[in-house]
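Hi team,

Below is the intake form for TonB-dependent vitamin B12 receptor from Lysobacter helvus. Please confirm the fields before the structure is written into the shared record.

FORM ID: S-0412
PROTEIN: TonB-dependent vitamin B12 receptor
ORGANISM: Lysobacter helvus
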Amino acid sequence: MFRTSLATAIALAVFLPSSPVHAQDASDADALDRVVVTGTRTAVTVDDSLAPVEVIDRAEIERAQARSLADLLRGRAGVNLVNQGGLGKLTTVFMRGTESDHTLFLVDGVRVGSSTSGLTSIQDLPVEMIDRIEIVRGPRSSLYGSEAIGGVIQVFTRHPQSGVRTRFKLGGGSHNLREASAGLDVGFDRAWFGADYAHQSSDGFQSCTGAVSPVFAGCFMENPDPDNDGYENNSVSLRAGIKPVDALTLDANVLRAEGRNEYDAEPAFGLPDLSRTLQQVVGGKAKYELARSTWTLSAGRNVDRSVQSRDNDPLGSFESKRDGASLQGDIRVAEGHLVTAGFDWARDAAVILDAFDPFSNVVRSRNNRAVFLQYQGDLGRNDVQASVRHDDNEQFGGHSTGSLAWGIDLSHGLRVSASAGNAFKAPTFNELYFPFYGNPDLSPETSDSFDIGLGQRHDAWHWQLDAYQTRIDDLIVYDSTLFMANNLEQARIRGAELTAGTTLGGWDITGAASWLDPRNRSRTNDSENYDKLLPRRAQKTARLDVDRAFGDWRIGATVIGEGRRFDDVANTLEVAGFSTLDLRAEWRVADAWTLQARASNVFDHDYETSAYYAQAGREYGLTLRYSPD
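The structure came back. Fields below:
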């Protein structure tokens, strides 16, 4: 089934653009010219971006009827997701075959993620608060510093609309899913304010299949508890801004999401089975625009907290804080020539809230200061982007990174691009110090990457093919011979990504297919696993989305296929490939009122993305939305 679905998705993605098509409507044409900011830290259109970039806007989020950020990212070009048991459970992202902590996540420009584990709790970021998502594939350390080896994913929360607008959502579904949200926007010429609240909860299902000796994996249980593992999330988003004069804009935003997550664990080991989580992002920005330059001062804080317990007895709690500030100037030195320069400051801190403190006798906070410089030039048919950055990390010293990208517009809408860049990643506090795992002698990971792309855009269709290679030195993994984290000598990752979209006979069709070859190339300290595949990355993935409107009705489907992957460095524990089909429909009942229905995993396939953690079978959902245009 997977091979059939994958072949179908690839075939449609490749051949549909060359088929007779109908012209796109105005909204689709506008979408092709939408502005992105993550790839360059400045505003450029998707067409002009020299980095492989994808945008998921609010219209697509609602059309897809996604329940989570993970639902929106599944099957996207270059993205591998690993989930441990459905809605709200731990979800990790592997971008272009790099590690799960090699993707930089931003929320409204604020760096997010745990400074202890290095992971971002994307399962706790509420989808109802999201206005759009920008996915940039490839290294971006020359603009953002540590972590951006595989790419950057930035989430932008809802922004206030003009006038007074309200919205409302009420939904339910399988596993006793309950969803409710409401929002208000008040916008004037010189001031604006917005607020949203969202609730999501589910009884969940029994996801852990368990395993003991000799594998000793999953939730460490031979016979897992037969109960369902529920999830609850309550979130609030606030944003406000003022424009006191034409040249000055002041913005502030807050996102707070509190979660309650149940999971299986063996009582004999004294492990927790309940976690109460907090994700909080606070940010502010001042932008001053002059005739030939724009200056932006921004600051923010991310708090990531987890309090764990069993039978209401506290067993441990972790909290990390990430503070950051930036001053950036964008100077138009001539027509088509933009120079960006800036200074970044960041501080990561681990805060332990109980007696068990693995970081009590070691470094638990560190500062990072950086300067960066970027040039973007429009040279006729050629575009050039070059950037350099120097980071001074309080714990690991100086690291210089750079990137260079070039593109040329050919006839018939063809565009060729090429880029090269390096990146680095400082070890997390867990990798350095956590008991029975940490190694204080770890070195930062470094990488070198190059990318070559060929694409074509017309009014009614577009396609893009990118091929890349990344070499990572001192890759940090768990070394079973040392029983701690260790630097591998080297890893080599090669891959290719194809994306395409068109409108055919009234159907909006988009597709993506990715091929990945991530290899362990360490001959010294992991020679027995030389040339083995890096774990948890599917070598083949594909996604196909098809939607069509019929008056007040709209129907759609999503097919996702993923090939096999291995869950261990020795490639002995295989996770089988799979494919799923999701169906959706919506009916515009009246002005601003829409009734939506969905069926996920229609064929009720049993599959896993992480060994010993089952994914949901067939699920249904029904949603009522009120959202004025």
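SUMMARY LINE: Residues 1-32 have pLDDT under 50 and may be disordered.

Thanks, M.
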